[in-house]
Structure formats: structure tokens, C-alpha cells
């Protein structure tokens, strides 16, 4: 694929050139041809992002070298934060999310005396990407935090009844705080995976409530106990639709603003469907049998099937 937007006119043989070199050639003179091509491609990508992506799509490949349905590699490390009850770091491509779990004791709600609290939150600080600015949580971070909460609650991965210390008197509040330290798209998938891994790594002190003193105490001598998690862990897989024709799995930060629609599928064990979120139309245009006749096809079911296969691979790769 050509990355130069200004084709050079070849000089006539045996005719010395009297024209002065242009500013671009002068600026690139100290670079090798490979470095010049890479720099021109980078400039073209910034100035014409959609056209840049279209040229790759025409060659049936994406800018990072992946096929349309190919996923980025996943790496997970747990227990790296010693000050947290549990922690995990997940890297999905270049998107990196670190998650820590903290716990405190509070009084249960009046209408839910036998349940504790689960409070997930995602922070997208300015340091993780130029698209985010310093200040209060962005709207994107708030929306993603709510989606993460829905995925964890709907899947019942951590039953809130297991967080009760004494009905109506004391219960655990589990704060699951995730921070994106490098953003390259698809933060939802990476963050949910980090939260699941951190919760699986969490251990709490044994707490008891004394009805006479109305106080809750935690034992320092007794061994800590892991959370009573469900066997089925929610895992998210996201897709984007570009140009109404192509389904791109695990979109990057460069691809995300250029997508017409997005689909996020959250699955549990055995292909159990936890939730599906679709923004935009899942219909794509495909060539019909007759010439000059296009057909519309719904790809939602295909995305769910692809997500099911991907989930199995992720669980083996991350959790063994």
C-alpha cells in the first residue's frame, strides 16, 4: 500500500535539475527511505484517518496487521499490589488496565439486610491517552463504570448475600477500582477481565459481629478467606462495524472513532449469555448473487458465536 500522498515526477535522464528541493524533501533529507515512508504514513494517518483505514481494509488487513476477526493478545498478572485485598493487571494489545480491590465494613441497606455491596469503578486519567483531559471523571469513564457494574451484577459473579457478616448489622463493601494506564481502545473488555481476575485474587479477614457490644471485629490470627465467587466468570468481547460492510473484532483507539456501530457481548461458562449491548445497526451490506445488487445481513448472531469461541481461548490463556 502506498503511503505517499504526493507522487514524485521522475527527472528526465541526462537533464540536470535546476529546481530547488521542496521543504518536505529538505526536512526528510537526514532520514532513511524507510523512515521517510513511515513518517509520511503517520502524517497521512493523522490528516486522513478514514481514508487511511479504508486503504488497509481494501487489502483485507487492519493497520496493526490483524485480520478483521482477529483478537489482540492478552496478558494477566495477579497479586502485584500488596496494599490491596486483591489485584490484577491486564494488558490487551497496548491497552493496559490495573485493578485493585479494597474492602470496608458498613451497615446493610434496610430493604437488603442480608446483602453487602459491590462498587466497581473505572478511571481514565489524562496520562493514559491524549483524548482524555485532567479533571473530574469523563462521561466515557462513567458510562463504562455503569456497564461494568451491570455485567458483574447481572452475572451474579459475586453474590451479594455472601458479603453479609450479620443481617441488618454489618456487611462487606467491596470496592473494585480499575485505572487505565495506557489506552488503545476496547477498555471495557480489558477492564472487566481485570476486575474478574482481581476478585478471584481477593482474600478478606474473618469478621464477626458482637451483638452485645454492637461492634464488628476482624481477626488478625485467623487466615484470610477468598470471596465466594460463582464458577461462571463474565468475560466481554467487543466488535465494531466499519463502512457498513466489515466487522472488526477488538477495535483499537484509532478504529473506534471511525466505526458506525459497536457490539459488546458478555458471556459466562458454557456460552451463557449475560448481556449484549448494541450501539447502531448490526446490519452489514454484502454483495448479492446478481451484479449491482447488495443484500443486508444481521451479524449479531455471528458476533455472539465468535465471542463464545474467544471466551474459551481467553479463559485458558488467562486463568489456565
Based on the model shown, name its key terms:
Ribosomal Protein S5, domain 2, 320 residues, alpha+beta, disordered N terminus, single chain, 6 helices
How do the strands and helices of this protein lay out in sequence?
Elements: H1 23-28, H2 33-47, H3 49-58, E1 74-78, E2 86-92, E3 95-106, E4 117-123, H4 139-155, E5 164-166, E6 170-182, H5 187-201, E7 203-204, E8 207-210, E9 215-218, E10 225-226, E11 235-242, E12 246-249, E13 261-267, E14 273-279, E15 283-287, E16 294-298, H6 300-319
Parallel strand pairs: 4-6
Antiparallel strand pairs: 1-2, 2-3, 3-6, 5-6, 7-10, 8-9, 11-12, 11-13, 13-14, 15-16
Helix pairs in contact: 2-3, 4-5
Pfam families: RNase_PH, RNase_PH_C
InterPro entries: ExoRNase_PH_dom1, ExoRNase_PH_dom2, ExoRNase_PH_dom2_sf, Exosome_comp_Rrp42_subfam, PNPase/RNase_PH_dom_sf, Ribosomal_Su5_D2-typ_SF, Rrp43
Keywords: Cytoplasm, Exosome, Nucleus, RNA-binding, rRNA processing
Your description of this structure?
This protein is α+β, with helices and mostly antiparallel strands and 320 residues long. It has one domain: GHMP Kinase, N-terminal domain (Ribosomal Protein S5, domain 2, 2-Layer Sandwich), CATH 3.30.230.70. Helices cover 26% and strands 30% of the residues. It contains 6 helices and 16 strands. It has helices spanning 23-28, 33-47, 49-58, 139-155, 187-201, 300-319; strands spanning 74-78, 86-92, 95-106, 117-123, 164-166, 170-182, 203-204, 207-210, 215-218, 225-226, 235-242, 246-249, 261-267, 273-279, 283-287, 294-298. Strands 1, 2, 3, 4, 5 and 6 form a 6-stranded mixed sheet that branches. A 4-stranded antiparallel sheet has the order 12-11-13-14, sandwiched between helices. A hairpin with a 7-residue loop joins strand 1 and strand 2 (86-92). Helix 2 (33-47) packs across helix 3 and helix 4 (139-155) packs across helix 5. The radius of gyration is 26 Å and the shape is elongated. Mean pLDDT is 89; it is low at 1-20.
Amino acid at each position: 500500500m502506498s503511503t505517499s500522498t504526493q507522487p514524485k515526477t521522475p527527472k528526465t535522464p541526462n537533464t540536470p535539475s535546476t529546481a530547488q528541493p521542496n521543504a518536505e524533501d529538505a526536512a526528510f533529507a537526514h532520514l532513511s527511505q524507510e523512515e521517510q515512508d513511515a513518517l509520511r504514513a503517520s502524517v497521512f494517518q493523522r490528516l486522513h484517518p478514514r481514508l487511511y483505514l479504508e486503504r488497509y481494509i481494501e487489502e483485507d488487513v487492519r493497520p496493526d496487521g490483524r485480520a478483521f476477526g482477529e483478537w489482540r493478545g492478552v496478558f494477566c498478572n495477579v497479586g502485584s499490589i500488596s496494599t490491596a485485598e486483591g489485584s490484577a493487571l491486564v494488558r490487551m494489545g497496548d491497552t493496559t488496565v490495573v485493578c485493585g480491590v479494597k474492602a470496608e465494613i458498613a451497615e446493610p441497606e434496610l430493604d437488603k439486610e442480608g446483602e453487602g455491596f459491590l462498587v466497581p469503578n473505572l478511571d481514565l486519567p489524562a496520562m493514559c491517552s491524549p483524548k482524555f483531559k485532567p479533571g473530574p471523571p469523563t462521561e466515557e469513564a462513567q458510562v463504562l463504570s455503569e456497564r461494568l457494574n451491570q455485567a458483574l451484577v447481572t452475572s451474579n459473579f459475586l453474590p451479594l448475600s455472601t458479603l453479609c457478616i450479620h443481617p441488618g448489622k454489618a456487611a462487606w463493601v467491596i470496592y473494585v477500582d480499575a485505572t487505565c494506564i495506557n489506552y488503545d481502545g476496547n477498555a471495557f473488555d480489558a477492564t472487566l477481565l481485570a476486575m474478574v481476575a482481581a476478585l478471584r485474587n481477593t482474600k478478606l479477614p474473618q469478621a464477626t459481629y458482637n451483638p452485645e457490644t454492637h461492634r464488628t471485629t476482624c481477626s488478625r490470627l485467623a487466615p484470610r478467606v477468598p470471596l465466594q465467587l460463582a464458577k461462571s466468570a463474565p468475560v466481554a468481547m467487543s466488535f465494531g462495524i466499519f463502512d457498513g460492510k466489515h466487522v472488526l473484532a477488538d477495535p483499537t483507539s484509532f478504529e473506534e472513532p471511525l466505526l458506525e456501530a459497536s457490539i459488546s457481548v458478555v458471556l459466562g461458562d458454557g456460552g451463557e449469555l449475560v448481556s449484549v449491548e448494541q450501539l447502531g445497526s448490526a446490519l452489514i451490506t454484502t454483495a448479492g448473487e446478481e451484479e449491482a445488487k447488495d443484500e443486508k445481513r444481521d451479524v449479531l448472531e455471528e458476533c455472539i458465536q465468535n465471542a463464545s469461541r474467544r471466551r474459551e481461548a481467553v479463559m485458558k490463556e488467562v486463568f489456565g
